[in-house]
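step=predict obj=YkgJ family cysteine cluster protein n=83
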Amino acid sequence: MECRLGCGACCIAPSITSPIPGMPDGKPAGERCIQLNTDNLCMIFGKPERPAVCGEFTANIDVCGSTNEQAIWLITDLESSTS
C-alpha cells in the first residue's frame, strides 16, 4: 500500500519519543508534528534530520485503513492499546 498523500495520520495520532526538529522531546499522541505543513505533508521527508521511526513507518491497510479518518482512528487505537 502507498501512503495517501496529505493524510498525515502517522504524524498526528501516535506519540513519537525521538527528537524532531522543533520538538526536541518528541511529541505526544494526538498532537500534530511541527514538521507537518498545512497540506499534511512532512517538511523534512527524505532529510537526514527526520527521525528514524518516521522513516521506518510503512503504510499498511491494517494501520491506515481506507480513509484518512480511519487512519487517525486506527493509529489512535493502536497507540492507546500499547501505551
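step=describe
Residues 9-82 form one domain.
step=end
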